[in-house]
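Exercise: predict the structure of this protein bound to 2-acetamido-2-deoxy-beta-D-glucopyranose.
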Amino acid sequence: MRTAVLAIATSIVAMLQLVVAAPLGKSDLCRLEPAPITNQTCQQWYADILVGTPPQEFTVLIDTGSPYLMLPASNCTTCGDHTLFDAALSSTFSVSSATPINPQFATGADAIPLNQSEGATCYLNADTVDFVGLQVQNQPLLLCDSYAPTLNDMPIDGILGMAPPNDTSVKSLYWNLYDSGIFQVPEFGLYLAQGTSGAAEMSLGGLDADMYKGNLQYTRLSDDASGKPSGWVVDQQSVSVGSGSRKKSVLPLGQSQQQQGKRDGGPPAWAVLDTGTAFIQGPDKDTVAKFYAQISSDIRMIDPAGAWGADCGTLDRVATAITFTLGPQSVAITLIVPKEEFNMGEYPGQNGTCQAVVSSPGVPGFSDGSSPIWILGSPLLKQYYTSWDGINNVVGWAERY
Ligand SMILES: *[C@@H]1O[C@H](CO)[C@@H](O)[C@H](O)[C@H]1NC(C)=O
Ligand SMILES: *[C@@H]1O[C@H](CO)[C@@H](O)[C@H](O)[C@H]1NC(C)=O
Ligand SMILES: *[C@@H]1O[C@H](CO)[C@@H](O)[C@H](O)[C@H]1NC(C)=O
Ligand SMILES: *[C@@H]1O[C@H](CO)[C@@H](O)[C@H](O)[C@H]1NC(C)=O
Ligand SMILES: *[C@@H]1O[C@H](CO)[C@@H](O)[C@H](O)[C@H]1NC(C)=O
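Solution:
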């Protein structure tokens, strides 16, 4: 059984080779291209998708942090130079609802945090979608007639949400593919490009054994509790900085640590695993201030939107690994953002000042004080080969090649 599955996975993998390419400014996006053309560090990844009959082609961000397949519509006037989807040209298109939907993103295209959530105005429709040769009929599709600037700054047309199937009203494309019966196992695998070169890939319907060593360690998705965010969410037991005997635990995990008893036995914090976020986000400004106080008093907020940093030389000198303990307490595993990821480079518009990897939320109301939510984005996810299984509700982690 296993062998057959891997054969499917491997053939898809081959078509999804993602390699470093030309990102915009600091956006750190990497896509399908034959060769590396800059020294940009990849923090987000995208691929191509075909929508409608006959097919119209789009470039989409692979986003485990959202459920929708979202594209700009032909009547969008604020969608920059993105390719627009023309429903009138598709014989398989159908309208699902005339009620506008406003997906809002609390983190944007790149390493720069947002001052306010940004989004789009979209309508729910359906059409045939082809992703690497695999087709889904009547896939829910959000077509947007307005895009926030954040979306326009990205070299992608839209977003391919890869959220798990059990907590969204609209099923992500991947889980509709799974439901169609073409995969024998539910998981997809992600191998994300590290540093400035090297291929990234995604495997569908199984893992690519050539991309990882040893066994996977699994973290179970969090049980429902009041305040739990949606998406790929796991319990977070702790976060610490440093290594060896100099390792320091950083507590609290959020302002409301002392209120946890009131949260139905929920975990100390939740971690949202999100390929669509280019940094790590702490739950609130106070917690992030305490976090950096453990590392260096030179690290300060450099943008009220939630970016923290220091002058580049200082930040390099104090850079440290960050260790997250994830999963239910009795079986929690430790995962590490290495020291090399700590300094994300010069902050745009601030010559000589570099940005540190942990941001605080810039979007007002992101954290209401009762639910400590961390967003663990690509600086953590690209350190490992990861497996995403929304049927058995686990995320697996292995050492990558
Ligand atoms: C990219 O990195 C290589 C090797 O470190 C260096 O020689 C080259 O000048 C860099 N190119 C750019 C555009 O920074
Ligand atoms: C774009 O088209 C949709 C679907 O027909 C419609 O609901 C929406 O109002 C249109 N938007 C604009 C800006 O014309
Ligand atoms: C989704 O999965 C989680 C993790 O197993 C589970 O706690 C939750 O009850 C599930 N939700 C639904 C709606 O099935
Ligand atoms: C956030 O808002 C502040 C104050 O208005 C501004 O100085 C800063 O540039 C903004 N940052 C971003 C990333 O929009
Ligand atoms: C930053 O400052 C240095 C030294 O003053 C200067 O050489 C460099 O051109 C500046 N870079 C930018 C982007 O302004």
